[in-house]
Each structure stands twice: as structure tokens, then as C-alpha cells.
Specification:
2 copies of one chain form a homodimer. With 213 residues, the first copy, chain A, is α/β, with parallel strands linked by helices. Helices cover 52% and strands 13% of the residues of chain A. In chain A, strand 1, helix 1 and strand 2 form a beta-alpha-beta unit. The longest helix of chain A is centred in the C-terminal third of the chain and has 15 residues. The two termini of chain A are 38 Å apart. Chain A binds a DNA duplex (30 and 30 nucleotides) through helix 7 and helix 9.
Chain lengths: 213, 213
DNA sequence: CCATAACTACCGGGAAACCGGTAGTTTCGC
DNA sequence: GCGAAACTACCGGTTTCCCGGTAGTTATGG
């Protein structure tokens, strides 16, 4: 639409908070070398606007209603493997950060970070870099030491968080109650806790699971 | 500092996310009748800046690191009972909303709300109104039907969320384990659950407790 | 083809939690 | 001063959970 946007970095901003979108837009539009070409508040909208605008860089919040930011990233990267995505997240230590990076996100920025970092990261990512902040690097390394939960274990703790008993979890997953207890013990061991309540809160803190609506 | 700020509504913005602060500032400064005179990222800073600037309206996020938004509101209203405060919060259904309103907040706005509502609410609050959105009103009414947790019950579920056993909770609160179990049963009953894990997740969803650190 | 990881399943014992009662004390408002 | 609510405490019984083992099956990958 604009006329003299020859070499500007074209950005898609995805966040369900209008105020955050405005903050990002303002910050970016103040830069001479970048501009926000579209904003989305949901994953579905993001996919549509991405196809329509083909932005150079996409800023993606992870906590979206409905389709999550992680799922959105996976879809975008599947159809467009060269999509450059910067994750914008609330809390550090969120397990989803690592899953997002594994899904192809190029970098992540905390919402508590001063916004100068955001534009710097956008420039780096646009140049093809994958800037990795030191705390993420150390936590990625730490993941190798204490391995993440397996798929099945995530399913179990997800149901635990819903208040299900082991017997009910067994029924839901069509496995024996004994097996559920094995998964439970492995979860406790990995998270460094001794009961299910602490396991659920620990998993929530680390972003392994989320409180659904 | 500025010259022609004769009749403008002077606003203090409190939020730990720089991008949100920028979004709010941008939105407000675009209005002809209001301006942001100061921004704070913590409760302590907010109290200091409030005393310094005496804003007409304070926009307050509830989820602040360290001193919570709720505590900050209580302090502000205790020293300045005429302080007009608009709560800016993430999720609706957050118990803290009602505690904030009881503590003297004049209104609340969701971060997912379109930002036009924010400036409208600010104007109303500045005129002395306490605009109450319908869903808050219904939920306030609902609180009378199913009473909120008592102080002691909140203390118990807080410790539950930390993974403490009943015996440990009893020791922490210097009461008998039997009494803890009584509180636990009352909590389950009020929250409509049957075990502690579900109680903790339900309390987290409703904003009765929060995941610290 | 062998190792590793993930998932499955079982057993027995002990600890913790949950349930349904009853009941005394304090505190607060009417 | 009386009722209501909150907090405290106890009992007996049942269920669920937690722990420490052992072990078979199925990919996955070097």
C-alpha cells in the first residue's frame, strides 16, 4: 500500500492483546528500516494474513486463544519453511519456547524485555541469524541433562491437571492403571517432585501444560 | 513539564510489560483529552510516581512482579482514598478483579478488550463513575451464592499448590492435621472438586492463587 | 543386530488423602 | 445477647496414591 517501502522489513504481528499489538506496531513503525504490514489476534487469522502479505518476519505470541501459537508456527513452517518467526512470550522458562524453537522459530523475546531488544532481534532474524540468548542456551543444555517429558507422560499429567484419578486416566488412555502409575512416577522423578499436585504446578510453571479456559 | 496540559486527564500507567506500556501510552496520547504523565513497571515504583505526579487516573496491571497490583492498590487507596484506579488484567474471571474492586479500584478492563474501551472507561472513571461491565456484575452476584474461600482456606490451598502435605501445612499454620483436612474438604466443596490437584487448578483458573516464581 | 528409549504391565506394602460425622471457641454484626 | 460464620479438633473407615521392584514389546538409530 505505502509507496516508499522498498527495503523495509515487512512484519506480521500476532498477539491476542490489542494493547501489545499497538505497542509493537508503534515501536516498529518508529524504526526507519521496518514496518508492520498486518496484525492478527488468532492463529487462523495469522495464517491467512501470512499467505496474503508474505511478511519478512512474523512476531508470534505463544498464548493465543483457540489455535495456539505453537501450532500456528508449525503450520506456517510446514507450508513455508523459510518463514522467519520471532516468538514473543510472557514468562521465561516456558517449555513452549523450546518446542517453538524446535518447530522452526528463529528467536524469542520476553514481553518483560525492554523493547529495544525486540527491534534488534528482528533485524538479526531478518538477516538469517538465529540469535540465542544465553539463558535459553543454558536451559536447552539443561534439557539434555534432565530430559523432557515424553508424549505419553504429557498426556498423563495433562489429565492429572484436570483432576482425574489414575483409574480414570487409565480408562481415557486405554491402558492399565498400573501403567499410569509408572508414568506418574517417571513424571515425578523428572520434575523433581513427590506428588501429583506438585507435579501439576511444576508443569504449569515450566509451560509443559496450560490451564485450558 | 508540558505547557498546554490545562484540562487533560493525567494518567499513570503501571505494567511490567514495556510493550503494553507503550501500547497504552500510544493509545492515550492519541486522545486530545488525556496524557500519560508517568509509567511504572513495579508496585514500589508506582507508589513513588503516584506521590510525585498525583495522576488523575492510574492504570494498574494486577500481575506485577514482587509487590502485586492488588497490594499496590490497597496502599494507594489507604494513603489517598480518592485515587481513581482502572485495573488492567489478563483474564476475566480472575478473583483478584473482585478483590481489587473491593479494595477501591473504580473499574477494570481486559487486555483482550479493544483499546477504544480503555479510553472510554478512563473518561468515565475520571468523572467519578465506577463503570461496571455486565459480566463482572453477574459474577459479583454469583459470589454471594457460592461464597469465596475464607482467609484460612486460601492459606491452605496456597500451601497445597506448593506441594505441601496436610501434615506440613498443619505445621506451617500451627494447627492440627485434622483441621487442615476440614479446611481441605470445605475448599473442595466450594470449588466443586474432589481432590487437591483439581482444587489447585480450579483456584489457579479463578485467580484465587497464583504461581509464584 | 544390538542398544536405547518409550510404553506397557504386574505385585505388595505403606503412606497419604478423602469422607461423614460431631463439637467446642471466638469473633462479628444486629 | 444471640445467631452466623470462621476456625479449631477429633474419630473411624475407605479409597487413592506413592514407592520399589521386575519385566515383556515395540520402534529408532547407530
Amino acid at each position: 500500500m505505502a509507496s516508499e517501502s522498498s527495503s523495509r522489513i515487512r512484519i506480521l504481528c500476532v498477539d491476542d492483546h490489542p494493547l501489545v499489538r499497538e505497542g509493537v506496531t508503534r515501536k516498529i513503525d518508529l524504526q526507519p528500516d521496518m514496518e508492520v504490514v498486518a496484525s492478527a489476534s488468532t492463529g487462523e487469522e495469522a495464517i491467512r494474513l501470512f499467505a496474503q502479505h508474505r511478511p519478512d518476519v512474523t512476531i508470534m505470541d505463544l498464548n493465543l486463544p483457540g489455535m495456539s501459537g505453537l501450532e500456528t508456527i508449525e503450520v506456517l513452517r510446514r507450508t513455508r519453511p523459510d518463514a522467519r518467526i520471532v516468538v514473543l512470550t510472557m514468562h521465561k522458562g516456558d517449555e513452549d519456547i523450546y518446542r517453538a524453537l524446535e518447530a522452526g522459530a528463529a528467536a524469542y523475546v520476553l514481553k518483560t524485555t525492554v523493547s529495544d531488544d525486540l527491534v534488534r532481534v528482528i533485524r538479526d532474524v531478518h538477516l538469517g541469524a538465529r540469535p540465542m540468548s544465553s539463558d535459553v542456551a543454558t536451559q536447552l543444555a539443561a534439557r539434555k541433562v534432565s530430559p523432557p517429558l515424553t508424549r505419553r507422560e504429557r498426556a498423563v499429567i495433562e489429565l492429572m491437571a484436570r483432576g482425574k484419578r489414575n483409574k480414570e486416566i487409565a480408562a481415557d488412555l486405554a491402558i492399565s492403571e498400573d501403567t499410569v502409575e509408572v508414568h506418574a512416577r517417571n513424571i515425578f522423578s523428572k520434575l523433581g517432585v513427590r506428588d501429583r499436585t506438585a507435579a501439576v504446578t511444576a508443569a504449569l510453571k515450566r509451560g509443559i501444560i496450560h490451564l485450558g479456559g
